Amino acid sequence: MNITTATKSEIVISRFSIALITLLMGGCGIAYEYTFSKIASDLLGNSIQQWAIIIGLMMFCMGVGSDIQKYISDSNLFDRFILFEVILGLLGGFGPIFLIYIFGLSRDHFALVQYFLTIITGLLIGLEIPILTRINERFTPQLKLNIGGILRMDYIGAFIGALVWLFVLLHFFSLTQTGFILGLINNLVAGIALIYFMKYARQKIILSILVTLSITALTFGIFKAPLWTKYAEQRLFLNQVIFSKTTPYQHVVLTKRQSGDISCYINGHLQFTSSDEFIYHEYLVHPAMLLSPYKKNILILGGGDGLAAREVLKYNIVESITIVDIDPEITQMAMNNSYLVSLNKASLKNAKVKVINNKEISPGETRHIFIKNRARPLINEFKPVSTVSIINMDAVKFVEQAPGFYDIVIMDFPDPNSLELSKLYSKSFYKKIYEKLNRTGVMVQQSSSPFFTQKAFLCVGKTMKDAGFSTIPFHDNVPSFGEWGWWIGCKSDYISENQLKRKFVSINTIPVETKYLHTGLLAGSTVFGKNIGSDGEIKINNIFNNIIYKYYIDELKNYY
To answer: Which residues are catalytic?
Structure first.
């Protein structure tokens, strides 16, 4: 069909078909970038760095691909377009599951494979638009209309693809299934193009077979993805994977040892092991509870697993616990997953849940949680003594907007192993915590290892102090992590550091049941070895320098 011989309706239909193909290609292209970036950040952590590198590299390769297309002759242009779409669909479809498998098989070679796939995918995406523009010359010979129409649909498709990836694919499908779905769309595009523009194809039979086989393989992959993912992911862990889910925020895995112990991993980093998590959580909760003269209103930032709440609920005097965790999947898992429910003693089982989608706090329905094993008079056995509320939103936004004050603030965040987590250890955030505490309030922050990440550990205390807190550090050994530390603080205009330390080491009773912690350990936990240096040269962490992240990453390089 030539522009001079084609009917007006044929030209309109051809232009519409190319516009639709461009729209779908634009959507798949951006979704491929997101999928490969998400896979990299889930496996390697540090999502900002991984997203920046993958998307930047892919866009660079798209530019190279746009230039390479000039070497493809017009005589076999359409055949090359179909072939490139088939290859792109197969790479995008099988790429995510292949990356997970390679990471488990040989982590040393993962980056090489990851960047190779990123480069090839970027080159193929870069070839698409120029080739399609050249094909469209037959129906839209005016350059300004041709380029304008193609780029318009490509950009619109990219926007739609971003929304669909974020709000549909990521919510209803795993990352590996998402890859297969995108690959299938790419190959359906090739199939549509082949059917409608068949007269331009030289190798009709070969191309038809390729498109059919690739569509069949990708469709098969969609249904087999859960099984393949389970097999590939199992290679990442020594113990049996019993739960795995990728959320919009992170990748969560639960494993089970032969002994029955449960371990939780987020983005490949161990969060806790059931055999010793009580050591960590008892230190995180009880010193703050014992130092505070008031214990009615407790705020837990992070801690969506319900393990810190389990310890807080041991105190009869507590009236309300507010847990703020950005990821609804974590808190839902803590309420419904049988392994976690058993571990956290159903601390969140009947909690009031408020998912914040508009970043604005509003009151929700109040329900009470009944804890049968709490130490209190039998006459109150069925009295609703505590309200447990779960707010699924960013901790910084919550602290900025939340009304009222708290007696105790417990911060149970992951280590500052990424730029986005660094803000949760910043001076500005600690100042917001300061403003949310009662005058006699106590805050406690898990602070990573004073041995493996000493500078990061000291940075936490120095930053808290600069925000107006009197602070003291304490530590103990948690077998799953090694030497671990926490910082506890009170408002400096209420109590000095010397007074706080004397009060800490003078704790002579723990009025609730604990599995590990006793008063003798508390006194000794404030004593550090000579290897722990001073914070003299340590800088204050803020949202502009993110120095705690740099300390953390640089120090870990010495051990891994």
So the answer is: 412
